Amino acid sequence: MLPVHLVPSLDGVSPGALVTVEGAEAHHAVAVRRLRVGESVVLTDGRGCSVVGEVASAARSAFGVVVSSVRADPLPEPRVVVVQALPKGDRGELAVEVLTEVGAQEIVPWAAARCVAVWKGERAAKSLARWRATAREAAKQSRRSWFPSVAGLATTADVAVLVAAADLAIVLHEPSSLPLSTAEIPASGRIVVVVGPEGGLTDDEVAGLAAAGAVPVRLGAEVLRTSTAGVVAVAAVLSRTPRWT
Q1: pTM of the prediction?
Q2: Last residue of a domain, one of 22, 52, 72
Q3: Does one domain contain both 156 and 176?
Q4: Are 102 and 27 members of one domain?
Q5: Cis ω for the linkage preceding 78 (within 30 of 0)
Q6: Helix, coil or strand: residue 122
Q7: pLDDT at position 245
C-alpha cells in the first residue's frame, strides 16, 4: 500500500501537476521514512481530494510529487459525530484513534460530571493537540480522504445543542432497556453518539440529553470501557447504513 501524506490543499490540481510537500510532513517522509525519488505516494487534503503520483524531488524539508491521477470522494453519509467523555491517561488518544479508523467524522471531547480527567489551562491545550494529532495520523493510516475534526472541549450544554441538531442522537447508558439494535438509523444526515465516562452518566445528564432529543440505549450485557464503547457503537450504527452495506 502506498504511503499517505497530508497537504494543505489540492484545489485545482490535475494530472501532470507538481505538488510540493513541505514542513513536518516532508521532514517525516524524507528524514524518518526515507522517501526517495521515483517512489509512488498518495497525497490528500483531508477534505475528499486525493492524488497518486511519483516523487520527483526530495530534500530534507520538502519533496515534490508529479500527479498521475486525481480522485474526489463525496463526504460519507451518514456523518457520525462522537461525543467522547474524557478518559483517564492515554485512553483518550486510544479512543480517538479507533474512532477515526472506524469512520467518525467529528470527535467532541466532553467534560462530563463524573470524568476523572480534567482539562484546564495548558493541560487542556496540550491534550487537545494530542487528540488532533492522533486523529490526523490515524486518518492517514486508515487511508481516509475525509479527515475527522476534533472539536474543542464541550460542556454538557454544548452537547445538548449538538443532540438537538442531529438527525439521530443516541446516548450509551447501561441501565437503558432499549438495545441500540432497535434504533432506526437514517441513511443520511448527522448521527450523534454520546459516550459517557467510566463512572457513568448522572441522572441529570441523561435527562437533559433526552430532553434535547437523544435516545438512551445500551449495547449489550457486557460493560465496555469508555475508550472502546464508542467504536463499538459506531460500528454497530454504520453496519446498518449504506456506508457499510
Answers
A1: 0.94
A2: 72
A3: yes
A4: no
A5: yes
A6: helix
A7: 82
